[in-house]
Amino acid sequence: MTPKLPSRHLPPRRLLAVAAALALSGAPVEAQTAAEQTSTPATPQPSALPSCPLGAYHCPPRPVNFNMCRPNAMLSFYDPTLSKDSSLRDTSNTFVTAQRVDGSNQTVYHMEGNVKVERADQRLQADVTDYNNDTTDYDARGNVRYQEVGQLMSSDHIRGNQDASTGTADNVSYQMLTNRGNGVAAQGQLLDDQRSRYTQATYSTCDVGHHVWEIHAKDIRMDKETGEGTAHDATMVVGGVPIFWLPTFTFPINDERKSGFLTPTIGNSSRSGFMVSAPYYLNLAPNYDATLDPRIYTDRGVMLGGEFRYLVPGSTGQLNFEFLPNDRGDPDPNTVANTTGTDRWLLKYNDYTHIYGPWSFSTSINRASDRNYLRDFGNDLYTAAIGTLSSNAYVNGGGKWGEAFWNAQFGADYYQNVDPSLPDSVVQYKRWPRGAFNINLPINRWLEVGANTEAVAFRKDDVVEGNRLDLYPYLAADFRGAAWFVKPKLAYRYTAYDLTGQYSLFGYSGPLAPGQATPFTNNSPSRSLPIVSVDSGLIFDRSTSLFGTSYTQTLEPRLYYLYVPYRNQNNLPLFDTNLMSFDSWELFTPNQYSGADRQMNANNLSAALTTRLLDDNGVERLSASIGQIHYFTQQRVQLPNGPNTVTPVTDWSGSDYAVDLSTQLSDDWKLTSSYQWNPNTSLTDLGAITLQKRIQTDGIVNFSYRYRRTPGTNLPLLEQYDASVVYPVSDRWRLIGHWTYSVLDKRTVEALAGVEYDSCCVALRLIGRHYVNTYDYNTQLGSTNTAIMVEVEFKGMGGFTGQSENALRNGILGYQ
């Protein structure tokens, strides 16, 4: 017996055909760092679950998880120590070992017995291998095994030519290491170094030998350049049962974008009937793509949805459009519009474009064909509850001008009523156009001067219209030390109007009550007043411990004094101004009204006390605060309740006590609470509590209670309970539930129940929902909708389209 020869050094481009030409699966060859090497590449670990802090409103989606896939027998010859750098192939030497080598021909090398050929990231093993040094032909036979950075492969026999990068293999089994694609074929052909072909082949991302689903095809072609596989005469088989047949079927073989069908959606709605959606993704170019989403609603007709995204130099944007011609749905008796027989559509367009230097242009256009559209076709309660669609277009700029910092914008805002239970008169004014300019100039390290300015033209049918100029210059100082701060501020506010249109209809008419404003006659009213404030605070800290854990506790008293003289503003219209909800933030603001149409009068002192617990890493584990505003003078500036009415002044000596509590003493649960108690009426104006508990890594439990009292009465305005859960029964199953109940209406606002299943290569989601989709503000009753949705994902073939994910993300705090 010929003794085993040591490793032999051969020319870099010789004997490489045995390795290079065996890349028959067409999987992309990608360089990986040593940190990415694992001992079981065909069962890749999922990327780390993106962190989602407790209390976050939206969490990142879970990555596709192949961690439940079982190890397969093809990995028995995998060597994790083999290089992961495929770029070294052309410059690396080739090493060959075998039990016997016959080189007597001087041209053809004949190797037998555990033959191993290795170069860079490539390794070929076979029982017998012949290699022609002149023609670069090769022939490997018997238990052929091949490994590279992108794949593993086995075959009974392979032959080909190195220089031509061609090869033919019999009885092929392959396993991709980058996306788990695997299958078998009667024969495989290497057409060149990027493309390969299989005949009588299968493809799946399931465990080898345990295919829940697979593609059966007469011919499968793989293209590493495009990252796409194409199957001809292809049948999709699930659980051994043929599901559908297509003459041509494409699928991804890597993580790059490619054209093809996304996960279909099947659902049922009491408003629109049975629905089937089959989105198709178009990878048009590296910097723009599109998705066509045809849907069939049995009660309404055929809808075509579409999405177009682009990213060009200096500009990025997205266009979404949905269109359903000749709606066949029955009219809804609870809405004001009959949409039967009409064309229904929805348009959403967003764009950001850099113009020049500090200037850019941004736009957001949102329009619907009618006021019922979001109720009939909204995918979730959040969408269905939207009452106004806003559109805007603005030129924005900002930067540094000498020592001053500035920003400016000019554009317009438009609003559309999409609430079928409300008249168009409730829609806010169009700001057509609007311009704003803000500047801040530091004089020294503690003193600055600046101004906030805004000019708006307000437009609305059948009511008073006009233009408004608001100027707000200020001088502010900031004195502070390590444990204290004092921030005085002196401002002056001037607001002027030029009213047009129906301005003579504005104001009060008829007999005047004591203190009531006179009928409106001035079309150029104005208001000017100074605003003086001083904000100050102290910060104390000490070391303490709680339940055996050391913390740093802070004590932070804060005082805020505000003085604004009274100005009668009954002759000023209300274009965009409302009374803001009282909370802890409002203790330290110069105005309780949004917009510039009203400026509160004030001679107030706000006092608040906050304490925090910080752990050794500086993470805030507990925060508690209490505060109140003490009024030295009456609050005389009020919003009118309507024509011929007088809103009494606020003669209370103090505001509500505002109490806030937030605690997260462990990483698994968090409690937040807000409470407002009115000492003048001895009534609770607001109470809210939210408890959130994390279950394992992807489960969550939420409970919340919300109460708000109607201002000026003893009656509640809102009282609701809300509970939701995502419960992981096992690593494969999750139960989902959400329930919102209105105590005032004595009815369920929304109920959702579902189940998610996740396995090695298949994910399933089944969701059922019952929710109120219209609301009558007079009867406090509305119509409801019941919907059922099913989504199935074949991993590696496309992702969830998100039809039900919007409902879960908006309905369940912390859903991931």
Question: Quick summary of this structure?
Answer:
This is LPS-assembly protein LptD. The protein is mainly beta and 816 residues long.
Notes on the protein architecture:
InterPro entries: LipoPS_assembly_LptD, LptD, LptD_C. The protein starts with 7 loop residues before the first strand and ends in a 5-residue tail after the last helix. The protein is built from four helices and 45 strands. The chain has a 26-stranded antiparallel barrel. Strands 1, 2, 3, 4, 5, 6, 7, 8, 9, 10, 11, 12 and 13 form a 13-stranded antiparallel β-sheet that branches. It has a domain at 8-44 and 73-211: Lipopolysaccharide (LPS) transport protein A like domain (lipopolysaccharide transport protein A fold), CATH 2.60.450.10. Residues 1-48 and 507-514 have low confidence and may be disordered. The chain is elongated, with a radius of gyration of 35 Å. Helices cover 2% and strands 55% of the residues. With 816 residues, it is mainly β. The longest helix has 7 residues, at 805-811.
